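dumping the sequnces here before i forget
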Amino acid sequence: MEEKLTLFKNRKRFGIEKNIDLIFKNTTLALSSIVAIVLFGIILVVFFQSFESFSRYGLNFLVTSEWNPVKDEYGAFTAIYGTLVTSLLSLLITIPLGVGTAIFITEDFVPKFVREIVGSFVELLAAIPSVVLGLWAIFVMEPFFREFFVFLHKFFGWIPLFSTEPAGRNSLLGIIILVVMLLPIVTSIARDSLNQVPKKLRNASYGIGASRWKTIFSVILPAALSGIMAGVLLALGRAMGETMAVTMIIGNSNVFSWSLLSPGYTISSMLANQFGEADGSQVSSLFYAAFVLMILSLVVNIFAQWLVKKFSLKY
Amino acid sequence: MIMNSLYYQKKLSRNVGDKFFTSLSVFCALIAILPLIFVVTYILIKGGAQITPELFTLEPNPPGDDLDAGGINPALIGTLVITTIASIIAIPVGVGGGIYLAEYSKGGPFSKFIRFGVNVLAGVPSIIAGVFIYALIVSTKILFGSMYSGFAGGMALSILMLPTVIKTTDEGLKLVPNELRYASLGIGASMYTTILKITLPTAFRSIATGVVLGIARAAGETAPLIFTALFSYYYIVGFEDLFYEMGSLAVLIYNFALEPYDAQNKLAWAASFILVISILTVNIFSRIFAAFTEKTKRV
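..and the predicted 3d for all of it:
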């Protein structure tokens, strides 16, 4: 806006007015730089607090899964593995569901008001606090899936992922509740990118005789792909950092297991569980784990932003 | 026979395929709305049954064998207090920063970096905000020697609110037509009068909607509070309670959901009822409000 205001700048003004303007501008400038200060502050503080643990365990911290405050031995492999597995698997389930829902909302299978209701229901789901979803997961979802997990173990027990007797709270429940939390993110971003695809493309495709789904798969989805990908990455970042619902349902065990039916751990649930009571070098190790989590989510987020900028639709 | 090709043929592979994918998409949409319906129904039934007048006035009883769990008064007030502190910090900073980005910045590297930083900050896991405030305030006892405090909790929440407020201000101000600014400057107003008297009031509705949604979101956050504000069973009586442990609905739900006692679990459902109903009300109303604003703008 300011570049067009040369006339305004040359206007004769009272010194006091100029000064007030300058003070106001610099105040807003200072307020906006608080964002940068907070961001760097977070990175620096978490890094320096984790320094003690970092210098003692180095990168071994990432690949060992011993977590023993008595012997002062710390390794976060179970939690890191849990974070990656729960977020990636939940994303794998959410992508088809979310994109399918977004297609339902943007196509005209049903009257518009039905689609609008579905859309706002999905968005309202995002407003439910994660701790409430956790409560619901403990008392409603876990009993509901219990039989199913027994069945899963009985018939698919030969797959390492289902190789243990189902425990009350386990990683698979964590994945399911994450799907519930990611669904609104993926759906709303996919819907926005599908809506941005110009009508011309659809009409052209119909015009040369393509069927509705041929059009969706070959024209509309590819055109919206970058937006959907960015949404998926944002959801991945969210999934890795998600704390409460997962902490309440995943079982919180630092014993490593390939099986999704046994209790697991994620970095954020480890932080939620142990931070309050930790002391000594355990605190530093927890900060180290927090640092790992932060780097993971920063990388994913920055990559998502880059993707949006690089491939944003240019029709 | 030739005419047949002009009619819709059910058994043609492309039509069968279309039917199949259409039903698949409807199925996805059905699954997607199920969680909200289930969660809200359970909260209405299980939580609604626990709502009594005493719930709003009593302190919660510490978990134990006694059957009466008490009320959630301290947590309810605590949530209000902590969210208010967070808003008092985040709204001025966010609106001010948004004003700079939308009104003053020239699209140079600094404003690009700040916009980028806002997006990155929005993606920082909420528990990291708690960890940060723990390191900065709780463990250093910088606030008059107090460790866990409602004030620290409010600061952690404000970090989560900040990106939302800046973004909505920035975007809201950008929608204000430049003619308004030129008109104001043209009749001799200074920059800051133009912004405070013309552009901000014009964008007020969209900014307010975004900010209210941000506050509603923060009110339900738990992760940043569990080791900054911690939890308290006692009434909040005075100003100095700000610098002691403070309960909140979200942390109460977390703590009591994991208790083995039925009475505490019921209290968690009651707290969820209150939290979810208020958050959904705010969300639905701001949605209606936003839709209404859009309609009046077009006229």
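Chain B touches chain A through 97 residues (CB under 8 Å).
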